[in-house]
Design goal:
Blueprint lengths: L2 H6 L12 H23 L11 H25 L9 H19 L11 H5 L15 H25 L5 H19 L11 E2 L3 E2 L2 E2 L3 H26 L2 H18 L4 H27 L1 E2 L6 H14 L5 H20 L4 H15 L3 H15 L1
Antiparallel strand pairs: 1-4, 2-3
Helix pairs in contact: 2-8, 3-8, 3-10, 3-11, 3-12, 4-6, 4-10, 6-10, 8-10, 9-10, 11-12, 11-14
Length: 375
């Protein structure tokens, strides 16, 4: 048998479905719960009802879903590409600031000083808007900046870092230095971002009052759909040839280079996409929480994103989302019940997961299911 005949008989792996039948069923159930059931429980039921979903719960779940988008973005670069970033908080904050600038312009003359300028600019005796606020009154331009600002910063940073083949712990330290430098920059009043107070006291979005129950629920549903959409996008990417190359870069980058692939383009693409996802999460976070300030860029916040991914289970996509809900749900309870113990709990959780659950919650569930089947 000649070689051409052998090659023709080779069976290449077929293209697998994005989700299994049971996976699509679970996905549809989640969509219905978040986009139909939750709004009904909040808007239609009386507050005295046992099944009423409070405004506090809506805001909390919406905030955690924004965090889950960041955790998903972290999984793409850390879980599947082997790049641990400790600076993704800066991309989250850039998207938040882009949305915050628009919301500040929507206040108009309703501010404390009755000026077209934001209150903090009037307080600092500024006479005109700085150049980087030029298009902040345009919703279309804001949508562009939400993805462009973190995307451009990530692309420029990543290009020089990856081209220099900086990786491992050195890359993590540099990203942490980046977010710390950005935080110090935004703390300065002369940068035009509100200094340490940031932006708050938002009134409207698209000329619609932002504090109404219908707008609050609209943002909740939009965040839900965005998270689910990013999950499908991430799953499609990982199951494609592009995703297989990313995993090969994670496992043996030198071997990938010897195989004729240039890791720079793959790493830079997923790094930039991950940053843009965080920017979108930040933009959805700001109108729901009602504030954005430089503390969102603190290194501790970026470290927490990595913890969410580790707790849920890296390289699983669904794991980091679960991790974001578990950790932030515990944080919401502990910071009220035992505020002095929260940081100790977070540190112990990360150490415990690293030592005893290296595959996170999802890995533990898979292990228990395998043990059950073997028994």
């Amino acid at each position: 048998m000649n070689s051409s005949a052998v090659i023709s008989n080779v069976q290449l792996p077929g293209k697998s479905a994005l989700l299994t039948r049971s996976g699509w069923s679970a996905f549809i159930v989640v969509v219905l719960v978040l986009c139909v059931v939750a709004p009904s429980l909040n808007l239609l039921l009386p507050k005295t009802s046992l099944f009423y979903l409070s405004d506090y719960a809506v805001a909390l779940i919406g905030k955690i879903m924004c965090y889950a988008i960041c955790a998903l973005a972290m999984d793409l670069i850390w879980g599947y590409t082997g790049i641990l970033s400790l600076g993704h908080g800066v991309f989250f904050a850039l998207g938040g600031y882009a949305m915050g600038m628009y919301l500040m312009r929507q206040i108009g003359l309703e501010g404390n000083y009755k000026s077209n300028l934001p209150d903090f600019m009037v307080f600092l005796d500024w006479k005109t808007l700085p150049w980087h606020w030029s298009f902040s009154d345009s919703f279309g331009a804001t949508l562009f900046l939400i993805v462009a600002a973190p995307g451009v910063v990530a692309f420029v940073f990543g290009y020089f870092a990856f081209r220099s083949r900086i990786k491992g712990v050195y890359f993590s330290i540099i990203t942490q230095a980046m977010t710390f430098a950005a935080m110090l920059l935004f703390f300065r009043n002369e940068t035009g971002f509100g200094g340490n107070n940031g932006f708050t006291d938002f009134k409207r979005i698209l000329n619609i009052p932002i504090a109404t129950p219908s707008m609050r629920m609209s943002l909740f549903v939009l965040t839900s759909l965005t998270l689910l959409g990013f999950f499908l996008l991430a799953r499609w990417l990982i199951r494609s040839k592009f995703g297989r190359v990313l995993q090969a870069v994670r496992d043996a980058e030198t071997r990938v280079m010897f195989s004729g692939y240039n890791p720079l383009g793959y790493k830079l693409t997923i790094w930039t996409l991950s940053a843009m996802m965080c920017g979108v999460a930040g933009a959805l976070y700001v109108p729901q929480v009602g504030i954005i300030n430089p503390s969102e860029m603190s290194p501790a916040n970026s470290i927490e994103i990595a913890i969410w991914a580790a707790v849920g289970g890296r390289a699983t996509l669904i794991g980091p989302i679960i991790g974001a809900f578990v950790v932030n749900g515990a944080k919401s309870w502990l910071t009220v019940a035992y505020p002095e113990f929260w940081l100790y709990f977070l540190g112990a959780l990360f150490i415990g997961v690293t030592l005893f659950l290296p595959d996170g919650i999802v890995g533990l569930v898979k292990k228990l299911r395998r043990n059950g089947h073997d028994a």
